Amino acid sequence: QVQLVESGGGLVQAGGSLRLSCAASGNIRTLNAMGWYRQAPGKQRELVAVIMGGGTTNYADDVKGRFTISRDIAKNTVYLQMNSLKPEDTAVYYCNAQEYITSFNYWGQGTQVTVSS
C-alpha cells in the first residue's frame, strides 16, 4: 500500500505561481512513476505531468513551458511548480503514483487550485 498526501493548492491571480507537493509513504519501492492529474468541473480527469522512475518527465501540451514536475527522492516527495497560471488551470489537482509490476494507480485526496482572472 502507498499513501499520498498533497498540499499547496489555493487561490491565485492569473499570471501567478503555486507549488504543489505530494508526499508518498508506505511501500514506495514498488512505484514506477508519479505524477499530477487535474479535474475541472464537468470535465474528465486529465494528465498534467508525470515523472518516471528514471527521471524522465512528460507534460500535457497546454502546461509545457509553464509547469515543472520534480522530485526529492530523499523526502519521497514530488512537486509541481506552476507558473504563469491561467483561469483555465482551475481544477482539483490529484497526485498519482503507479506501481511498476501491476500498474495499479494510487491517488491522493486532491487539492483545489483556483486561478482568478
Describe this structure in words.
The protein contains no helices and eleven strands. With 117 residues, the chain is mainly beta. The strands form two sheets. Strands 2, 4, 5, 6, 9, 10 and 11 form a seven-stranded mixed β-sheet that branches. A four-stranded antiparallel β-sheet has the order 1-3-8-7, with no helix packed on it. The mean pLDDT is 96.
Ordered list of secondary-structure elements with their pairings:
Elements: E1 2-7, E2 10-13, E3 18-26, E4 31-39, E5 46-52, E6 57-59, E7 67-72, E8 77-82, E9 91-99, E10 105-107, E11 111-116
Labels describing this entry:
mainly beta, 117 residues, globular, seven-stranded mixed β-sheet
How would you sum up this structure in a few lines?
The chain is an all-beta fold. It has strands at residues 2-7, 10-13, 18-26, 31-39, 46-52, 57-59, 67-72, 77-82, 91-99, 105-107, 111-116. Strands 2, 4, 5, 6, 9, 10 and 11 form a seven-stranded mixed sheet that branches.
Distance between the termini: 40 Å
- The tally of strands reads 11
- What's the helix-strand series? EEEEEEEEEEE
Strand content: over 45%
**Unreliable segments of 5+ consecutive residues:** none
- The number of helices is 0
General shape: globular
The main pleated sheet reads as: 7 strands, mixed
Mean pLDDT score: 96
Q: What is the alpha-carbon Rg in Å?
A: 14 Å
Helix content: under 10%
| Class inferred from helices and paired strands | mainly beta
